[in-house]
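Q: What does the assembled structure look like for these inputs?
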Amino acid sequence: MEPGEFDWIRRIVSCLGSGGSEIGDDAAVLTGPDGETWVWTIDTLVENVHFRFDWLEPEAVGHRGLIASLSDLAAMGAEPIAALTALAAPADALAARVERLYAGLAATAQHAGCPVVGGDLSRAGEVQLTVTALGRCPGQVLTRDGAQPGDEVWVTGALGGPAAALALLLREGPTPEVLAHPAYDRLAHPSARVPEAQWLVDRARLGAAIDISDGLSGDAGHVARASGVGIMIETERVPHDAGARDVGRQLDADPIEWVLHGGEEFELLLTARAGSIGPLVNEFEATFGVSLTEIGTAIEGAGVRCIENEVVRPLEPESWDHFGTPSDLGS
Amino acid sequence: MEPGEFDWIRRIVSCLGSGGSEIGDDAAVLTGPDGETWVWTIDTLVENVHFRFDWLEPEAVGHRGLIASLSDLAAMGAEPIAALTALAAPADALAARVERLYAGLAATAQHAGCPVVGGDLSRAGEVQLTVTALGRCPGQVLTRDGAQPGDEVWVTGALGGPAAALALLLREGPTPEVLAHPAYDRLAHPSARVPEAQWLVDRARLGAAIDISDGLSGDAGHVARASGVGIMIETERVPHDAGARDVGRQLDADPIEWVLHGGEEFELLLTARAGSIGPLVNEFEATFGVSLTEIGTAIEGAGVRCIENEVVRPLEPESWDHFGTPSDLGS
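A:
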């Protein structure tokens, strides 16, 4: 087996010493200027690994670059303060794409109330967009290690859209029909659940949180490991994106693989003390137009399992490990 | 003429709107509710543009990646708080180089008191290392726009070493003699002048500051433009790195081009109210083992000129513009 990204991250953390310990969450935690908790994240999108320009407009690449960082802030219970960008690109890519990429990023930044306060620009052989974002936590600082046995496991939104869109693009290419498909919209224009997380921090008794960037199976595994619990997911309760279901019919495929393992959903996976979210669901869904669904339970033990038709099986990640698996956009 | 990096940055700033205005300095400025000022910077090193692995050990690449950000903090009058990294690399480069790169970065981080609190790792076609660093300003926040006519212009250290080393590498390749040359050491193991800047903030009446990353001519131009002044540099007073002088003799070249235009020096260019630094020079040099030299004057007007043998001429940048000029490491 090839060493995967997470193996490498663990080895690098040991290289970096104790300061690297916070790498386990979506963002590092800092004590801000007035004692407020700030969180800080960084993410890179690489051309032909995380995106392809023949499949995504430059504006959508810029949007996704910022959303990846905003989603990390959301998963920590943070509101954005500001972002910086670093863009590396071949000189010949600049005229065609860079301004459109930044225009997409800037529009998303304005919409999210996250000013982009600076940046770095380099010549390079391939396009890489790095975004770093700072956020502040007005309330609970959410982490991966806060789940307890007995917690309910919840997810925002419906899953499988981005992975279904990739399957469709691989089969059909970027035809007008594919680019107009609702699943494609989930790939090209995802949201970061920043206000949704704040709303829940203010009202529910939350345990752990993570954004679904590696796929539900993989990210549930991160929470289980960090919290020292097992997680049991009721497969039939996991909400399927309507676009993913439609792609499944078109391609004669069961969308469950996309729903359980697809990456870069940017939905939130949360655990909460029993009974603390249920009474809030109607108001949450009315406020945000986003579903909030209980999909399982944290239990004593370790690992992630799923239960379907009373059969329990381990739910191993088949997620977007950029070094080990074929499920991302790269070759 | 190809559009250079700075043209693109100006266009992108206009794209990003008002939030991008602080891109003009080495770092963005954030103000906390209690008035403490934090600064925030980001820099990317790209393989075969900013460095070549046949010319630099992986540890030196990691070192330089962090130093570029620490030097930006120094130029703002800031002390480091923490850093995050984003590394993208081909899978086959990982085993050989990534751990050594991070080891070099971690050693420099420890030495500088700048913990690396997290990071991102991606598969990519080429190695790109992005470092973002946060710093706090206990005193004056230094910017490029603080120069006034009548200010003295000062520089830390001696210049030309990194560019001389590149000239030597281009001519000779990475022979044992080249790698042992003092000019090469300036290329591979530069310092960030963080404590030096703090010391001067505490004692002198500083105007503007910038780190010499684009070359003395280019960075003096940044200060002149931002401050709305002219800068007159006395060419003969600009300290020549001893290694650069030696390379000049070896290659039968005048090192002045390296001294005036060479990039990634990571020395500081400062302006100060007349007479406020002179009395401090001996103590500065004794404290840090680094020279501090008056090289010119800020004057009414615009642009950078140099004076030599009573002849004044414009000093145009021939600096490390990653998109326009041949003076960097790229093809």
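Chain B touches chain A through 72 residues (CB under 8 Å).
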